[in-house]
Design brief:
With 473 residues, the protein is of the alpha/beta class. It is built from 19 helices and 14 strands. Helix 1 crosses helix 6 and helix 10 packs parallel to helix 11.
């Protein structure tokens, strides 16, 4: 049994991949969702041999407590944890009520673990796997991604569920990211895998097309989200082949992620002609100095603006994220982020607050400079936990998150919002505005999600209760 905290619009491709690998070896799979199921009752019903947690840092306490509850009722049930939190906090194997954790790329390690449990023999020497008795090194990265089975869609596309009914499906064409942004886990991940294989690996075009067509036949859809950290690094042979075959066999509009500094007219035209409807292209900070010195995103404001102009001229909608509350940033820097976003004119401008997740270089910088209390675990992305900002500054940051998209969409409101409204205490009205903006801009311009009226209401309420800025998760 696989266990996750929640299920969003985006498929859980990691556990879906593990499920496909295990099913290939005649194992059975089921899914428990903490926010939707009574996992303990589900365990009684399904009687699994193994419970596998997929843990994000924000959800760590929920899984830690669940492991205790499971062991209290099922002492001999084997529990294994994986995901980002286990990878960057491997010491949890010693303090949690789990039998093992998997660090890093877990495909082969998980299968070795399953085989050991099934055969009743010791798995403590398995690479990528830690137990209380032994910590093991990482094995090399998987070079040939085509050898992997397609993710198990049946695990999450349960008839009647919102994922089953969505018109959007997520696919991955690659693994790895070659960049070194300090706020992203990929930078630290790359350090873990230094000298253990090529970081960025692609599936073949034919392999990707085959998966898309098979999923389309069984679970119809009319929009694709490519979830790669960077969909392309420029115009190359792979992209040209992909463009030809995608237009011939798939012909479905899609969304992908791209860095601004690789954008040129040739790339934008090729993406648009292939079927690219929208892209995610981050600004992160309006301060070129912060981007270069703190975030390691060495691109000027002029490069950013030019990239957005090119994409805009080619008819592609852009989701653009900017962070506030970056260590050493000032309120003037936060205002610059709004002003640069106004000039870039993204269809969906978004603002988030930096949270010092363990295993991230920028978090280590924050801790090293005593900007966050040692006993304060990351628990929210809605309000800065850094102690270098005053309460007033944190209020302004929170208001920029909620009102920033409104300023960017309607620049004539800039003076009213930046000079008056962001200095008010955060309030429900600002939060309503944020929710409405998020739902409208996302579904109209970026991800054209089509769902029933009742599902829209359900997802709206869920967004209001669990994703609203200022609400601890």
């Amino acid at each position: 049994m696989y266990v996750v905290k929640d299920m969003s619009y985006i498929e859980l491709l990691g556990i879906m991949q593990l499920s496909a690998l295990s099913k290939k070896r005649k194992h059975q799979s089921c899914l428990g969702i903490i926010n939707e199921h009574d996992v303990l009752k589900l365990i009684e019903k399904e009687n699994p041999d193994i419970v596998a947690f997929s843990v994000l840092t924000l959800d760590a306490s929920s899984f830690k407590n669940l492991a205790i509850d499971i062991k209290n009722k099922h002492k001999n049930l084997t529990i294994i944890a994986g995901g980002p939190h286990a990878t960057f906090n491997p010491e949890i194997v010693d303090s949690w009520a789990v039998d093992a954790i998997i660090c890093g790329e877990g495909d082969d390690a998980f299968i070795d673990f399953l085989s050991a449990v099934e055969g009743g023999y010791d798995y403590s020497d398995t690479k990528n796997l830690h137990t209380k008795a032994k910590k093991n090194p990482l094995r090399p990265l998987i070079e040939n991604l085509d050898k992997l089975p397609f993710p198990d869609r049946e695990l999450v596309y349960v008839k009647g569920s919102h994922l089953y009914n969505l018109n959007v499906r997520t696919f991955m064409t690659s693994r790895g990211c070659a960049h070194h942004c300090t706020y992203c886990f990929n930078n630290k991940y790359n350090m873990l895998y230094r000298n253990k294989g090529k970081i960025f690996r692609r599936r073949s075009v034919d392999n990707i097309i085959e998966e898309i067509l098979k999923v389309k036949e069984k679970y119809p859809f009319d929009f694709i989200r490519f979830g790669d950290d960077n969909f392309v690094y420029g115009v190359d042979d792979w992209l040209e082949e992909f463009s030809v075959k995608y237009k011939k066999y798939v012909k479905i509009p899609f969304y992908c992620l791209i860095r601004p500094n690789i954008i040129n007219n040739e790339l934008a035209r090729l993406l648009r002609s292939t079927g690219c409807h929208s892209i995610g292209m981050s600004i992160e900070s309006g301060s070129a100095s912060i981007r270069k010195k703190i975030l390691k995103r060495g691109m000027s404001n002029e490069e950013l603006i030019k990239a957005f102009d090119i994409v805009y001229e080619n008819g592609i909608h852009v989701f653009a994220n900017s962070m506030v509350g970056i260590p050493f940033a000032t309120i003037d820097d936060e205002i610059k982020s709004v002003e640069v976003a106004i000039r870039c004119k993204p269809a969906y401008p978004n603002f988030t607050i930096f949270t010092p997740f363990p295993g991230v270089e920028l978090s280590e910088i924050a801790y090293k400079n005593n900007l966050v209390n040692e006993d304060l675990p990351p628990r929210t992305t809605d309000r800065s936990v850094l102690n270098c900002f005053t309460k007033k500054e944190k209020n302004i940051q929170e208001n920029i998150v909620t009102l920033g998209p409104l300023i960017v969409r309607f620049p004539y409101l800039k003076s009213l919002i930046l000079n008056i409204l962001i200095h008010l205490p955060p309030n429900k009205l600002f939060r309503y505005i944020w929710i409405i903006n998020k739902g409208y801009l996302g579904s109209i311009y970026i991800w054209p999600i089509k769902v029933s009226f009742f599902l829209k209401i359900k997802l709206f309420l869920k967004s209001f209760l669990f994703e609203m800025p200022g609400t601890n998760k």
